[in-house]
Amino acid sequence: MRESETWHRPLTELTATVQNECDDARRAGTELTQMGYGHICNTNIVIEHIGISTDQGRFDALAAGPDDGRGVLLLHGFPEASTEWEHQLATLSAAGYRAIAPDQRGYSPDVRPERPEDYSIEDLTSDVLKIADELGWPKFDLVGHDWGGSVAWHTAAEHPDRVRTLTAVSTPHPGAYAQAVRSDEDQQQRSSYIPTLQNVRGAEKQLLANDAAALKQLYEGVVPRDHVREYVERLSEPGALVAALNWYRGIKFSGHTGKVKVPTLYVWGTEDVAFGSTAALSTEEWVEGPYRFEMFQDISHWLPEQADEGLSRLLLEHLSQHG
């Protein structure tokens, strides 16, 4: 059962980023339809805060778009939340899709197990399927960023009967990433932070010290300030950051991800500090279905928020090509 609280908000209140783009286009005399997301600038967006109840607990989520629209599930990464998809939710909603971004295991207060073994990729994938089942979606489009990208890759590989299309943002295929960690010195250096985060109590203390200075630094100054404030506030709640860090401890309890057969879009930024070009470029070897790779020059790891308009446009193109 879904419990929902609906917010009816005009676009000007929903996201200043999108509104600024609309205003800039109007001042420049640009046709709004040329911006890549049609009538969104003239749309009154409806955003819902909903709860999705499963046997694991209640997942908090953001939802937008008509109830009978084609279902798109968006999975956030660390250390963020469903809010990272604000622009994409607005864009998909305006295009007639039903877009839902859940706060995943550890981020939703009611689904916050303490044991790291409860954060395996299999558990996280199971959450995705249970959420989709509760939404009444036998098949859905799946989008994931950062850790959400890893979950999306695994879900698409193991359950191609459920996933209509896959869009992975920043995160390469786990197989390509594992190969790069073994053989590429650059990727080894990029991944050297992981053992530090696996020491969750020490990492929690370090990240939250001095008014969460280290945590704020992770966002590299490119994530919207209001988003950063929300992320820091939520992760400062007792047990929240430890639960989010448990995703890293869950790695050793996780299985491997096979090749993906569903239509796949992979989007990567050249300034990503976590994932280098070796894994990004070799990801195509792990996709047996239709594959599209898009590279954003001078864009960091926080691509959904830093390159929100460009990503939203690519996402709409990908979904329309594989209906």
TrEMBL record:
Coiled coil: none annotated. Keywords: Hydrolase. Gene3D superfamilies: alpha/beta hydrolase. This is Pimeloyl-ACP methyl ester carboxylesterase. Pfam families: Abhydrolase_1. Residues 72-305 form the AB hydrolase-1 domain. The keyword Hydrolase applies.
